[in-house]
Amino acid sequence: MDLNLNLNEIEKKIKKAAENKDIEGLAFLFHNKALFYQNHQKFNEALNSFKQSMIYALESKNHHLIALNFINQGHCYESLSQFEKAKATYQFALSAAKSLKDGKMIKQILQKLFQLTKHQKIALESPPIPVEKLFDKDGAMSLLHEASSHFSKKDYGKAIEFLNKVTEINPNFHVAWLFLIESHLKLENPEEVIRCGEQALKIKPEMGFYWGYIGEGYEMKGDKKKARNYYKNAIKAFEKSISRHPKEDIYFNGISWFLMKMKRYKESIPFSEEALKLNPESEHHFHSIGLANYKMGNYQDALKYLRLSLEKNPVHDYAWYDLGRVYEKLDNTDEAIKCFENAVNFNPQWKRTKRKLRKLNPDSPFLSLNLPRIPKELDKNKKLRKERERKRLEPRTYKDPIIGLKESSEHLLELDEKLEFLKTEGMDNFVRKTKKFADDLLKLIEEKDNSD
Predict the structure, then answer these.
(1) Global pTM?
(2) Rounded CA gap, 30 and 47, in Å?
């Protein structure tokens, strides 16, 4: 079969999928393009297409295709005699297969890893190629990791420094623009919110949050008419996203949030309730319902849902802030102060919370905070919440095809990440956990061999 003819057909389909913004379709089409190259021994071209497929697979959260991409990239590196890169790629594939709980795929990858070295343990313990050599040639991903670390610590000024460097290196890195927008929102820099939002829209105009965030920027500037227009566009974008991904709770909650921005509070609640059905562990959906009730004057219902939000995430600064506002309306100043102090404590760079606290208690020691202080016991709660979320997303179990132990999956499936590392996480921690998973697997294999 003529390779060029097939590639021409695929290219036409890729063009059509791009026009329709069919992210998942693009992931599969680039994967097929890579397979054509691979079958015709054009391994460098295949690698480039697999990496394109990976980008779209990550966006569409297609974990099975992510794993297949890693496996096939490993095959290509093997064929090019680049064995260190092959080992590193198979190690990433191993964790992808773990997240799918695909025993057959795990066995296939382990066999590949074992074939690459003389000893099983060496195969899994050998240090992988630094991820930047595989995915981060320009260093943008490493800088994004630094930025996300500062962002998670609520140090928005530092995060912005690193994010600006990322966008200088790669202006099309839309995740960096997202972090920039959210950082400037917290610091109340409306001009920067609008500027970053407009840049992000050029890259991903289908993202409802970008439209909505620009609207928030104009609202901060006092231009309510422009803000409303952007909120409407945000809702339209979310509706289109729901038509493609009807089980994604974040899109329903996005509609709810921007309906509230337009003061359509009663209309917003059904969308948050639908989001809650899809993801009952999310603090954001409880918060949205609580905020809508607060805005409508239903203070008891607002208290109920905001407290539920804080049960899910005790360090949720937005929920503490809105809970404080409810207590203000109920003339319970002492409780309001406690809530605002918690909001400041967990996010001291958010200016709005400090203004509220200063108004009620100008002598509060929390007003001098610059970085958050999160008690250890609350960090434990966060871990428990993540574990509940992991169980919700991974309800299935499998009988380990290598060992055959009924409970083996409990020992093997400890890694929580779903390959979101390419967006927000650095690879050092990911690789370390991957190697730990592989070590645990080897121990179980050795135990089985000894018992036999």
Answers:
(1) 0.57
(2) 10
Kindly state the DSSP code that residue 41 receives in the 8-state scheme: T
Q: What is the DSSP string of 356-369?
A: HHHHH-TT-GGGG-
On whether residue 10 sits in a domain, the answer given is no
pLDDT > 80? residue 416: no
- The predicted structure's pLDDT at residue 405: 33
Q: Kindly report the CATH number assigned to the domain that includes residue 192.
A: 1.25.40.10
Q: DSSP labels for 101-132?
A: T-HHHHHHHHHHHHHHSSSHHHHHHSPPPPHH
Q: Which two tokens stand for residue 300?
A: 């008891």
Q: Among 302, 308, 318, 437, which residue's Cα sits nearest to residue 385?
A: 308
Do the beta carbons of residue 50 and residue 92 sit within 8 Å?
no
Domain assignment present for 223: yes
Token pair of 90 as six digits = 């198979």
Check whether 157 has a pLDDT greater than 80: yes
Number of domains in the chain: 1
Residue 158 falls inside a structural domain: yes
The DSSP string of 125-173 is: HSPPPPHHHHH-TTSHHHHHHHHHHHHHTT-HHHHHHHHHHHHHH-TT-
The per-residue pLDDT for range 185-230, each reduced to its tens digit, is 989 999 999 999 999 999 889 889 999 999 999 999 999 999 999 9
What contacts 24+ positions apart, CB below 8 Å, involve 378-385?
A: 378/314, 378/315, 381/313, 381/314, 382/313, 382/314, 382/315, 385/281, 385/312, 385/313
pLDDT band at 436 (very low <50, low <70, confident <90, very high): low
- Contacts of residue 153, defined as CB under 8 A and 6 or more positions apart, other chains included, come to 371, 372
Asked if the structure places residue 329 within a domain, the reply is: no
Please report where in the chains the tokens 């994967």 appear, as a residue.
31
Amino acid sitting at position 383: K
**pLDDT recorded at residue 425:** 39
Q: Identify the weakest region by mean pLDDT among 167-181, 237-251, 302-316, 436-450.
A: 436-450
Average pLDDT over residues 370-389: 57
Written as one string, the DSSP assignment of 181-197 is HHHHHHTT-HHHHHHHH
Please give the residue range of the domain that contains residue 224.
Answer: 154-244
Give helix then strand counts, H and E, for the chain: 24, 0
